[in-house]
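Repro case for the chain-ordering regression, as requested:
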Amino acid sequence: MAEQISTPAWMNEPGKSDSLSMSAGRSRRESAVQKTIMGMSEAIRESVFSERIAARPGLLQETDPRIKTIGLLGLLIATSFLHTWYIVLAIYGLTLMMAFASRISLGFFIKRVWLFVPIFAGIIALPSLFNIFRPGDPLLTIWEFGGELTLGPWSLGTSLAVTHQGLKGAVLLILRVATSVSLAVLWALTTHWADLLKALRVFLVPRIFVLVLSMTYRYIFLILGLAADMFTARTSRMVGSSSPREDRRFVASSMATLLGKSHVLSEDVYSAMISRGYTGEPVILHRFRTVAGDWLWLVAVILLGVAALGSDRLIG
Amino acid sequence: MAEQTRENHTIYSIDAVEYRYEDADALSGINLSIKAGESVVLLGANGSGKSTLLKMLDGLIFPTGGSISVFDAELSEAALKNEGFSGTFRRRVGFVFQNSDAQLFSPTVWDEIAFGPLHMGLPPEEVEKRTEDTLHILGLEHLRKRPPYHLSGGEKKKVALASVLAIGPDVLLFDEPTAGLDPKTESFLIRLIVQLTAAGKTIVTATQDLRLAAQIAGRVIVLGEDHKLAGDGPAAAILGNRKLLLTANLIHDHPHRHDDIEHYHPHSHLKDHHGREND
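-- result from build under test --
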């Protein structure tokens, strides 16, 4: 007969019949660290979610990834050479049409692009609007100084005004950035991540880079999942809230644990690769096949790019 | 129980093999031979060294003492550095890891299955054919474009298995193949192992699940907690040897309550008598 396991007395005590009523104490707030980890995990899931768009039938989804990469990159380069804002606007309009033809919700697409453009391009473009940074013909005077204002050796002029040239420059910059970001977003949204990386081989990106990039993407997701699980396990055992100091300490120790876990995982992954014949020289198989439609799309995009550059040169 | 369909030549000869991790023995004085077409189960409690032995059979780690030969040639680090040897060995021996997440490193299921054949240097048409065939056999066609993180545990195990089967190995090594699987996937896997054995493949499975051993093994090898060989023989004889299984910590007297009556009888580690997992 098996021996009984001896357990300490406290473990055998019946549970207290405390009711689950709300206490008068403070409600627990989610820690900033936890929010960040969960947010990162969610952001990666979001990018996985975008694979659903890549799986839909649509114009760009059905275009050969290599042709699509060349075409969109060509348009992006052409955009950066344009000086006329309404031609850039026309290219932006073209990206919207391509998004529509690729069955991407326009609301989602526009939001995805314009959420970041004001942050990155807007901040850079903002000072150039004003005459104190870039002299030009005043369009809207904001403040008359009542005489010339100087700051040490620098003269700031007699008024603060938005200039005609400044506005034109800022609009052009913002439009260029928005169009370029739209083209990049179109590329990423309509291509499976695996195909997207393989398409990089067109530009002679070494195979080992492609392999490492694709594995990084896969394991970031796995390791973030591990990190999120560690936080969830901690939360399930926590009574009350933890201080930011305790959170930071937990992050430091969990980073070490994660590093250990990822090291073990990397050894296992390498063993699994070796076991299936990997000898240090990756082999990547493209299964891309171009059809007449792909070439037609590429010719149309190149013609549009050339037409945009030509008319820009003529007008400018 | 799987039937031994043919008795053939020796595939593995394991001679006085020792393996030592930095601070502890993992295997000590192991002498074994495995013949072609056998379905061998390596039984042992946690930490007995069965996974270590399996990794050695796949040439992923090497004995710190003794030697292993495979297909009449020595299996050593130096031999595996030879392209001809390693190419043939990797084509003939496949390993299904316990942790499917370690085995599934490619961006999609299709790429995962194609990885082995591709690295064996097969022409692209043959790689495509094998990948499609394997997807079909395992019923994974609908998952071909899915990334591994979108898969359930059972699906991951099937893809891991597919990635090895696509190579077409003669010898298949399984590390705890049914751990953590749902009953349906487990039953599928057991049927497949039995079928592969009947087709003449050599199967070596490391497990501590006696129920699995009873279903797939023709021969059972028991590793003791002292990391030595504790038993080796036909499955029926070994699995019926209660004393041996108790000594190797593979069964223990486990109390059960049926209504008001508590009684004790021997149990394996992983399954209770309702077939559910205990740990």
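Ordering looks correct now. Chain A is about 65% helix and 10% strand.
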